[in-house]
Amino acid sequence: MNHITVKFANDQNTDFFHTLRSRVNDYFETRKISKQANFGMVFKTIFMVSLYTIPYLLMMTGLVENTWLIFTMFILMSFGMAGIGMDVMHDANHGSYSRYHWLNTILGYLLTLVGGSTLTWKIQHNMLHHAYTNIDGLDDDINIGGMIRCSPGQDRKWYHRAQHIYAWFLYMFVTLNWFFWKDYPQLLKYKEMGLVKDRKQSVYELFGKLILSKIIYGVVFLILPIILLPISWYLTITFFLIMHFITGFILGSIFQSAHVVPESDYGTPNAAGKVDDSWAVHQLKNTSNFATNNPVVTWLIGGLNFQTEHHLFPNVCHVHYKNISKIVKETTQEFGIPYHVEPSFFKAMWNHGVMLYRLGKYDMAKG
After folding, report:
1. Which residue has the higher pLDDT, 97 or 7?
2. Which of 58, 258, 338, 348 could covalently link to 64 via disulfide, CB atoms 3.0 to 4.6 Å apart?
3. Residue 326: count of CB within 10 angstroms of its CB
4. Other C-beta atoms within 10 Å of 170: how many?
5. β-pair partners for 149
6. For residue 205, what pLDDT is reported?
7. What SS3 string covers 192-241?
8. Is the distance from CB of 134 to CB of 267 less than 8 angstroms?
9. Which residues does residue 143 pair with via DSSP β-bridges, in sequence order?
C-alpha cells in the first residue's frame, strides 16, 4: 500500500476503549496529577543530556587526552544518545513531555543532536507506526529496505533464512542510517503521500534545512573531533562508528522486540482496505510489553518496555506507564482482549529472534 487507504473496524469493541480511556483519565483526575512529566522525568532529562554532552566537552576542551579515556567518553556518549532518544526526545515529539508546546518542540529537536530529523521521525513514528502498527506498506518501522523480512506481507528472499542471525548486526546501523541516508528518501516519500503538512515551506526548503542539520551534526560530532582530539583521525572515526553501533543496537533491539514477535497477528487489511479489529484492539494484538517488573530497565529505556500503554496512550508521559498498566491489563482481561507481556528483555529479544526465524523460513508467519 503506497497511500493510506486502511480503515479500522471502529464499530467493534467500542465499549472496551471507551471504558479503558475513562478509567485511565479517572486515575489522573482523582489523584490530581498531570499526564505529563514530573520531577523524576526532569532529573532523567538532565542526566541523559549530560551523559551525552559532558563526555564530548571533556574531550573537546582537552581535559581528557588519553586514548582509552577518549574511547570511554564515546562509549558514555552512546548510552547518552540512546537515553536522549528513548527517554526525552520520544516523549517530547509525542507532545507528552510537557503541556507547553514550545518545550516539547525544543526537547524534540534533541533528535538532531544524534543525527536524525524531527520532521521525518514524527511522520514515521507518530503518524504511521502508531496509527498502522505492523501493517505492511504503512508502518515504516517494519520496512527495513528488504534486508529483514518483518511482516508476512513482505516478499521472502533466500537470504532471509539467516535473518535471525544477521538482523542483530544490521540494528547496529540504525542511527548511522538516520544520519547518512534514511531521512532523504523518506522526506520525498512523505511529501508525495501528502503527509508533510507544512505548506509554508517548499520541498526544497525542507531539504535544505534537513541537509543543513546533517552538516552541523557532522561538523560538531565528527569533523571537529577529528581535528581537535589528540588521537589519529582513523581512531576518531572508529570511536564515532562504535558509538553509533552501540546506540543503534539498543534502539533497534528494543523497538523491534515489542512488535515483531510471534504473538503479533499483523491484522492484514482485506481487499477493501479494512482491518477486522478496532484501532485499540489492533494495537494490543500487535504490541508486547517486557520486563515490566524491572524498575531499572523501565527507567533506562524510557518506559518503552510498557509499549502497549505507550501505543494506547501516547499523550501520557512514560513515567506513568507502570501505574496505568494495571488498569490496562485488568480492562483487557475483563473484555477478553489479548495483553502480551514477557518477563524479561532477554526473553523479548529471544521471541523477536524466533519471529525473524519464522518469517525467514516460511512464506507466512507460522510455527
Report:
1. 97
2. 58
3. 12
4. 17
5. 143
6. 84
7. HCCCCCCCCCCHHHHHHHHHHHHHHHHHHHHHHHHHHCCCCHHHHHHHHH
8. yes
9. 149
Mean per-residue pLDDT over the chain, rounded: 92
Residue 357: CB atoms within 10 A of its CB come to 18
pLDDT score, position 273:
81
| The pLDDT value given to residue 88 | 96
| pLDDT range class, residue 275, cuts 50, 70, 90 | confident
At 263, list the grid cell.
504473538
Residues for the chain: how many in total?
367
How many whole angstroms separate alpha carbon 102 and alpha carbon 180?
A: 28
Kindly state the cell numbers that stand for 163. Answer: 535473518
Which residues are CB-contacts of 360 (< 8 A; sequence separation ≥ 6)?
Answer: 149, 156, 160, 161, 162, 163, 164
**SS3 per-residue string spanning the chain:** CCCCCCEECCCCCHHHHHHHHHHHHHHHHHHCCCCCCCHHHHHHHHHHHHHHHHHHHHHHCCCCCCHHHHHHHHHHHHHHHHHHHHHHHHHHHCCCCCCCHHHHHHHHHHHHHHCCCHHHHHHHHHHHHCCCCCCCCCCHHHEECCCEECCCCCCCCHHHHHHHHHHHHHHCCHHHHHHHHHHHHHHHHHHHCCCCCCCCCCHHHHHHHHHHHHHHHHHHHHHHHHHHCCCCHHHHHHHHHHHHHHHHHHHHHHHHCCCCCCCCCCCCCCCCCEECCCHHHHHHHCCEEECCCCHHHHHHCCCCCCHHHHHHCCCCCHHHHHHHHHHHHHHHHHHCCCCEEECCHHHHHHHHHHHHHHHHHCCCCCC
Q: Give percent above pLDDT 90 in the chain.
A: 75
Rg over alpha carbons for the chain, rounded to the nearest Å, is: 21
Q: Extract the C-alpha cell encoding 190.
A: 512523505
| C-alpha distances in Å from residue 316, one per residue of 12, 54, 122, 134, 306 | 24, 29, 16, 22, 12
Q: What is the pLDDT averaged over residues 28-48?
A: 96
- Asked if residue 341 lies in contact with residue 289, where contact means CB atoms within 8 angstroms, the answer is yes
Q: Residue 178, Cβ neighbours under 10 Å: how many?
A: 24
pLDDT at 172: 96
What was the pLDDT predicted at 6?
84
User: What distance in Å separates the CA atoms of residue 243 and residue 347, rounded to the nearest whole number?
Assistant: 25
Neighbours of 363 (CB within 10 A): 10
